[in-house]
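// run 5 | inverse folding | seed 20
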């Protein structure tokens, strides 16, 4: 065995084998895979082998499509059969809510180039004759579904990778990982040690144990999962005879079942509500190609529905019941990418649908290791989307919730309750007493909106019970004065004599002068947007930066990777030690004047100024900026002072009509200003020109900031896309994101976010469209729940286009 490798991949399941296939395909040398037993000895060998492209997140759907598209290639290169049957499949809806969801999936698929079709239950039962069409209201047909042989597929990746130069060692268990003094890792085996520049954790069922070798507690949990295989069924045999191919598969969301043909019978699996974690704390090393005892009682409620929805099953004998474990992250998406603070340590774990996602995960990770960029939008799968709050007990609660809801609808206004509340700020109880309806943001409870006594939120695809109340909150901001808690923003402090130089390199704008703030995008090496921030210069080489709260770990990873070249600088995240409120609206200055003795007149405290001032007796950092686009201030204080500052603002704000508002009102207000936000309008697949952020980027500054050359190139070439705002003639449902944007008779773009702009009384959508048609005013429609709604381009902000209110 070699003593040195560029990359050691730990784990020979479908994911590890896909990773080495893609690394070697991209030309990487010295690629080694270590498997403690034989390939497939985790969850891979007993998988049901079902594959499909559909996913609620279009970026994950893209990777799933890539995965399915690659199977022919690996079969050819490896000359290993993978037993692929592309049968197509129907996704069934037994309720109107579910049918609306399927219509949404179908809409999203249009700009991803997916060829799905909305069909009636009768049409569904013609395609898949085991269906009892009386039980359903509609369905979606997807030709890109099928199944394969998990063992053959894993070996096909492995053999193809070997042909491309990968080395695979079976029966080699990695027992420890130690930091190598010259960089990289000592990979310790029972009888060998390899020096690896990079290590990939593809340990599947043992991903937690491999993580623990480097002091990492990954948020991963295995769940027991059961499927049964029937004896031969006459209906299946006659279908095969008549049609010359296998019976298409079916996904029955309301029965929580999936079905596909297995030999001359059927395979039926279920995600039962009464689910069970497996080995919740530690995975035994002696578990291999083993199965768990079946527990038919646990899945019998689903089976009973299955017998009604697919009557021929009731007569079919059961040949075999498989119960095996496989892993999930708290939100059900994979955990991939580099880990903050552990250079050269990568994750490819928690891939719960290895045969639908493994190819895409392998490609993204290989790109990332080789080029420093995954090449896809993998935000939804990035390991950094979880912070240290995602402990083992949290993961246990969340994974069980996720598993039991795998086939449940999650409405756009629905907040999930497991593992909450976890982190709360000192004013939590006060906000709750005012009717705050809470959401979850990177571990923290945040107010979404305020419900009067007795008003309950109805979960829906359509405008709901919060609509009028959110409208009232937004109107009070525009007419009087609103207060919102903004503790969920990420807050960083940067300090040291090299601070300015360092920030100048990392951020694309000029660095503000002392006492000033600046909006600044951050780009990656390819000139794509990694984040948008407000940088404040507090003087004496001290800076305060506010950014997106959900990306705190993601951004800290990037900062830490890129401050190394500067000796005298420190970046720290303040998490929930520093908390904040924003006051906004025409009377916000009056309130500020009343609670501080500092000069906060328009001349003494200009737009984008920042000062350390007292609010009552409490020392705070106050910046004159507001995401509402109105006159407003952000007030930051140490956590100990939050209650005090809240009380004084509410008490003294009474005479100005102060009212609390939440994130939903903030969203409505920012839409009126065409302001984008991270993870929606701003993601690492868009350039600053495309995202209309050029005015915040200084291509003339001398410093060669990260992404500068690519941004210059984007400017020269013009960029492919443009972010645009549309007014939509929506009737009773607004966009939620990912809907297709039609221009004339073709889908040409996609929605990133939107909602109802209550002050103006219009439905708004933001989204990307091709540059060449981006300035067309008419000819647009946006599809909401299967209905194409007319839309017009809105270039100026709906509110205060000249910015007089926020500057005045
Ligand atoms: C009953 C069931 C049905 C399923 N059906 C489907 C389906 O229809 N479609 C689908 O896409 N997915 C399905 N899955 C999920 C699928 O099996 C997983 O997504 C996939 O197997 C994950 O692969 P992996 O490579 O990440 O992990 P694993 O298969 O667990 O592989 C990890 C490998 O790492 C090795 N390893 C761990 N630690 C070490 C170490 N320290 N040193 C060396 N080697 C190590 C292990 O021996 C193992 O071989 C199903 C799973 C189950 C249980």
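// decoded
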């Amino acid at each position: 065995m070699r003593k040195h490798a560029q990359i050691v991949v730990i784990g020979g399941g479908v994911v590890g084998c896909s990773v080495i296939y893609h690394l070697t395909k991209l030309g990487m040398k010295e690629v080694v895979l270590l498997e403690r037993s034989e390939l497939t000895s985790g969850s891979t060998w007993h998988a049901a082998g079902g594959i499909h492209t559909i996913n609620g997140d279009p970026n994950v759907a893209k990777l799933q499509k890539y995965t399915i598209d690659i199977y022919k290639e690996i079969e050819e290169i490896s000359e290993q059969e993978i037993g692929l049957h592309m049968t197509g499949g129907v996704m069934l809806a037994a309720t109107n809510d579910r049918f609306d969801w399927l219509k949404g999936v179908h809409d999203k698929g249009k700009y991803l180039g997916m060829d799905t079709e909305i069909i009636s239950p009768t049409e569904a039962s013609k395609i898949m004759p085991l269906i009892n069409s009386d039980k359903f209201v509609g369905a979606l047909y997807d030709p890109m579904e099928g199944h394969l042989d998990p063992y053959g597929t894993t070996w096909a990746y492995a053999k193809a990778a070997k042909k491309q130069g990968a080395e695979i060692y079976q029966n080699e268990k990695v027992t420890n990982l130690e930091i190598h003094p010259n960089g990289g890792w000592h990979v310790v085996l029972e009888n060998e040690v390899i020096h690896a520049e990079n290590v990939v954790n593809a340990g599947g069922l043992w991903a937690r144990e491999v993580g623990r070798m480097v002091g990492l507690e990954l948020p991963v949990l295995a769940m027991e999962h059961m499927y049964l295989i029937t004896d031969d069924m006459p209906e299946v045999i006659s279908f095969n005879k008549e049609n010359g191919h296998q019976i298409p598969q079916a996904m029955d969301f309301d029965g929580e079942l999936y079905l596909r043909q297995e030999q001359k019978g059927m395979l039926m699996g279920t995600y039962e509500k009464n689910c069970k974690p497996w080995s919740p704390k530690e995975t035994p090393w002696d578990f291999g190609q083993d199965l768990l005892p079946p527990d038919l009682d646990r899945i019998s409620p689903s089976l009973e529905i299955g017998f009604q929805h697919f009557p021929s099953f009731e007569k079919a004998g059961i040949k075999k019941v498989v119960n095996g474990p496989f892993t999930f992250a708290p939100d059900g998406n994979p955990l991939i990418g580099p880990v903050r603070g552990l250079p050269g340590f990568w994750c490819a774990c928690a891939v719960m649908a290895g045969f639908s996602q493994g190819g895409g995960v392998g490609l993204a990770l290989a790109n990332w290791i080789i080029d420093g960029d995954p090449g896809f939008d993998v935000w939804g799968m990035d390991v950094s989307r979880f912070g240290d709050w995602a402990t083992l007990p949290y993961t246990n609660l969340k994974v069980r919730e996720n598993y039991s809801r795998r086939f449940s609808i999650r409405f756009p206004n629905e907040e999930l309750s497991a593992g909450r509340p976890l982190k709360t700020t000192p004013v939590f109880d006060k906000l709750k007493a005012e009717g705050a309806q809470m959401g979850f943001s990177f571990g923290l409870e945040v107010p979404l909106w305020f419900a009067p006594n007795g008003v309950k939120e109805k979960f829906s695809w359509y405008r709901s019970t919060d609509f009028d109340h959110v409208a009232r909150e937004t109107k009070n901001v525009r007419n009087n004065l609103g207060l919102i808690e903004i503790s969920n923003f990420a807050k960083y402090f940067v300090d040291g004599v090299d601070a300015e130089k360092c920030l100048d390199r990392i951020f694309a704008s000029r660095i503000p002068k002392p006492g000033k703030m600046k909006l600044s995008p951050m780009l990656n090496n390819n000139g794509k947007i990694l984040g948008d921030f407000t940088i404040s210069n507090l003087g004496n080489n001290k800076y305060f930066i506010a950014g997106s709260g959900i990306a705190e770990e993601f951004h800290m990873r990037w900062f830490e990777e890129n401050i190394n070249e500067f000796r005298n600088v420190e970046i720290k995240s303040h998490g929930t030690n520093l908390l904040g409120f924003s006051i906004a609206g025409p009377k916000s200055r009056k309130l500020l004047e009343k609670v501080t003795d500092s000069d906060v007149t328009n001349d003494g405290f200009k737009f984008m100024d920042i000062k350390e001032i007292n609010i009552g007796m409490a020392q705070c950092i106050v910046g004159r900026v507001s995401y509402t686009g109105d006159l407003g201030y952000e007030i930051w204080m140490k956590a100990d002072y939050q209650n005090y500052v809240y009380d004084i603002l509410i008490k003294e704000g009474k005479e100005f009509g102060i009212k609390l508002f939440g994130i939903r009102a903030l969203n409505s207000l920012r839409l009126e200003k065409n302001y984008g936000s991270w993870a929606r309008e701003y993601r690492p697949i868009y350039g600053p020109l495309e995202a209309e952020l050029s005015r915040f980027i200084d291509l003339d500054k001398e410093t060669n900031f990260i992404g500068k050359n690519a941004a210059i190139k984007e400017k020269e070439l013009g960029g492919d896309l443009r972010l645009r705002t549309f007014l939509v003639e929506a009737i009773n449902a607004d966009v939620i994101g990912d809907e297709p944007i039609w221009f004339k008779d073709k889908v040409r773009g996609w929605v990133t976010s939107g909602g109802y702009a209550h002050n103006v009384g219009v439905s708004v959508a933001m989204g990307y469209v091709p540059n060449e048609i981006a300035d067309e005013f008419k000819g647009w429609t946006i599809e909401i729940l299967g209905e194409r709604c007319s839309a017009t381009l809105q270039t100026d902000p709906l509110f205060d286009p000249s910015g007089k209110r926020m500057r005045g």
